[in-house]
Amino acid sequence: MKSLSLLTALLMSLATGVGAWAESYAKQQVVYHVNYNDTKRAIGAMRNAQNHINALGAGNYEIQFVMHGNGIELLRSVANESDDAASRIDSLRSQGVAFKVCNNTLVGRKIDLGELYFASEDDIVPSGVAEIGKLQQEGFAYLRP
């Protein structure tokens, strides 16, 4: 019985601690840069973003993924090859995370928008690298996991 009380106390303190951590962070704006064709690495980046969200708390973040070059390949192959990546993308998007796609890459590689998982005209930016620069000018922190 004593060990159950200790376990309960430990779990309560952990739960309280997580809430306190979220309160200690100011709102953050972050851009995650993905320009590599490596599903495992991209899943790691999405896991980082979810951990980021969990630490900051709801409404305390603005997170965008900018995908260009080889990073576009994740969105071309995700539906067929990686249910894990698809579910992570869907989960992040449902939490307000934006995934932006480089039009220069689409045009240069002759990729039709319909080939990409989830993407619509609203997700397209003229240039991935220019978008990252613009976001940094707007105060977004740059991460490239």
Structural class: alpha/beta
CATH topology (fold) name: Hypothetical Protein Ychn, Chain: A
Helix and strand pattern: HEHEHHEHEHE
Alpha-carbon Rg, integer: 18 Å
State the separation between the terminal residues, measured CA to CA.
45 Å
Strand content: 15-25%
What is the CATH level 1 assignment?
A: Alpha Beta
Can you give the helix content as a percent range? 40-55%
Shape: globular
Number of helices: 6
Tell me about the biggest sheet? 5 strands, parallel
Q: What is the architecture at the second tier of CATH?
A: 3-Layer(aba) Sandwich
Spatial ordering of strands, largest sheet: 4-3-2-1-5
Mean pLDDT: 87
Low-confidence stretches: 3-17
Q: Into how many domains do the coordinates divide?
A: 1
**Number of E-type strands:** 5
Full CATH superfamily name: DsrEFH-like
